[in-house]
Amino acid sequence: MKKCLMGLALVALVAGCRTPTTIVDTDNDLGPQVASLDYRNVERAASALLQSLFRSGRLDRGDGQMYVMTVGKVKNDTMQRFDTDILTSYITQELMNSGKVMVTSAMAAGADNRDEMINGVRSVRGNTEFNQATVPQAGQLVAPTHSVYGKVIQRDIPMDNGDKQVEYYFQLRIVDIATGLQWWQNQVRIIKRTDGRTPTW
Question: Is residue 14 predicted with pLDDT exceeding 70?
């Protein structure tokens, strides 16, 4: 009985020391910084890249038309299981919100950025079970004019005092598909310093 009570007391003590689950106010997150990448870093980098693009004037067209962009490969060259779709989703969302860009889902480097139903619906052409007037006909897909691609790089650098500096480089490029020429590019750095034993994976 005594052992049982001691066990229950230990469980209660451990449970009482746990951090309670809370909802994070992402508009005013005062939580401590982490050595790995978190959503604040990604949004900060994406915002800086977009502001650079908007300031460059590259998206301004005199004919009132919009560019059609596709998502190319964005490589994760960090030591973390970082899904680069978090970055590209934020960027393409803001590009479309600008009213100057459309993003195609008919073709993209990664399957997550392609909609399989675009080809799926076209596969029923000639199928008498479907009203053919409702099936998209050939020649309606719009090819992209530009491709957005890039890389996220991590470097861990030992410091003389035993700490380490963690450097993150967010690189974004846009290429003119017709000419293959680099149309725009920029790089944003996020630098952190932390204890040398802090993991960054």
Answer: no
